[in-house]
Structures are given as C-alpha cells and as structure tokens.
C-alpha cells in the first residue's frame, strides 16, 4: 500500500511563498502520476498540478500556472509543490495524490487517483 504524507503548509501573507512536500512510501512505481489537489472552503476540490515520476512531465491548472512549480526527487521519493506569489484565493487544504495507472488521459480528473494524503493547510492573508 502507498502512503502519502504532506507537509509544509502554514499561514502566510499575500505575495509570500511556501514549498509543500509529499513523502511517498510503500509499494509504488516510478511510472506513477503524482498530483496536488486543493479544496478551499465552500469550493469543489480541484487538481492544480501533476508530474509524471518518470520523465518529469508537468501539468498545471490555469489558476496556478506561472506561480506554482511541481517537482520530484526520485532519490528521496518526494514530490514538491513550490507556491509563489500566493493569493488569498489560494487558501485551501492541499492534498497529495498518486495515480498508479495513467496512460496520458486528463491529468486533473480526480477519480483516477488511487492514493491520497491527509492534506496540509495553506492559509494566505491579505
């Protein structure tokens, strides 16, 4: 079983930066698609970014493109999400997720992700 543990969230001001980490353990594959999703109060959960473990192809939603950067460290089995130029609307619980069988379909489809972390809170004040 795959376990995902997020960390790095916190309370920051608009314009600040954070780096979220997702530690991956258990039985996993280098072919996994790793994603970051978020859920703000009163809003639907949405994927904001994803990365292919092998190859490093990256994907971003329009709302975060140009501000967030996803990356991974194969040796450390860790996926990162660098959050720059944070806005109050970025306030949400951020979840790490893994898709074990991804063949190039829409990266942001929630129901294709098999494993989820517990989430880490990001709060951005004005």
Uncertain ranges: none
Separation of termini? 40 Å
Sheet/helix structural class? mainly beta
* Residue-averaged pLDDT: 94
Instruction: Count the E strands.
Output: 11
Strand content: over 45%
| Shape summary | globular
- Which percent range fits the helix content? under 10%
Order of helices and strands: EEEEEEEEEEE
Give the biggest beta sheet.
7 strands, mixed
| Cα-atom radius of gyration | 13 Å
How many H/I helices?
A: 0
Model description:
There is one protein chain. By secondary structure, the chain is mainly beta. Helices cover 0% and strands 51% of the residues. It has no helices and eleven strands. It has strands at residues 2-7, 10-13, 18-26, 33-39, 46-52, 58-60, 68-73, 78-83, 92-99, 115-116, 120-125. Strands 2, 4, 5, 6, 9, 10 and 11 form a seven-stranded mixed β-sheet that branches. The protein has a four-stranded antiparallel β-sheet with strand order 1-3-8-7, with no helix packed on it. A hairpin with a 6-residue loop joins strand 4 (33-39) and strand 5. The protein is globular and about 40 Å long. The relative contact order is 0.32.
What's the short story on this structure?
The chain is an all-beta fold and 126 residues long.
Question: SSE layout and pairings?
Answer:
Layout: E1 2-7, E2 10-13, E3 18-26, E4 33-39, E5 46-52, E6 58-60, E7 68-73, E8 78-83, E9 92-99, E10 115-116, E11 120-125
Parallel strand pairs: 2-11
Antiparallel strand pairs: 1-3, 3-8, 4-5, 4-9, 5-6, 7-8, 9-10, 9-11
Characteristic key phrases:
single chain; 126 residues; mainly beta; seven-stranded mixed β-sheet; four-stranded antiparallel β-sheet
């Amino acid at each position: 079983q795959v376990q995902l543990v997020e960390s790095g969230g916190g309370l920051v001001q608009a314009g600040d930066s954070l780096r979220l980490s997702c530690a991956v353990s258990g039985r996993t594959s280098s072919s996994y698609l790793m994603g970051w999703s978020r859920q703000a109060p009163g809003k639907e959960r949405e994927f904001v970014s994803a990365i292919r473990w092998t190859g490093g192809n990256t994907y971003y939603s329009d709302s975060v493109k140009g501000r967030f950067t996803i990356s991974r460290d194969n040796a450390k089995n860790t996926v990162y999400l660098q959050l720059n130029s944070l806005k109050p609307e970025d306030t949400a619980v951020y979840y790490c997720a893994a898709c074990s069988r991804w063949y190039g379909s829409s990266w942001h489809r929630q129901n294709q992700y098999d494993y989820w972390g517990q989430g880490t809170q990001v709060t951005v004040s004005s």
